[in-house]
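Tokens in:
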């Protein structure tokens, strides 16, 4: 798998493409290092699932070499607004706090709770 992806990623990089994403469902724990080695640097969607994929842990492990789209458990949407906001802040420190302030702003008052 890696040599085939590497040929494609080398060609894309040669033409200025910096982000190569792969549709990945399920537990990708053992595949991430292979994909990164092959030049694939963005995983979409990062499913949390019962296997406990954690984008925060992946960020600590792979740094900014790994770009992540997803990583938000849809099950948390059944919880309280506070739980959802806490998860956004956990997933995006700094940026999540700005979103939290935006959600609390008077402009967001028209949005249903």
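Residues out:
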């Amino acid at each position: 798998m890696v040599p085939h992806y590497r040929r494609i990623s080398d060609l894309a990089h040669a033409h200025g493409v910096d982000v190569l994403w792969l549709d990945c469902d399920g537990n990708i724990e053992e595949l991430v290092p292979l994909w990164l080695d092959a030049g694939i640097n963005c995983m979409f969607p990062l499913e949390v699932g019962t296997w406990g994929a954690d984008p925060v842990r992946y960020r600590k492990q792979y740094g900014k070499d790994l770009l992540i789209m997803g990583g938000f458990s849809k099950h948390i949407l059944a919880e309280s607004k506070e739980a959802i906001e806490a998860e956004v802040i956990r997933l995006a420190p700094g940026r999540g706090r700005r979103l939290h302030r935006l959600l609390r702003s008077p402009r967001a008052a028209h949005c249903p709770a």
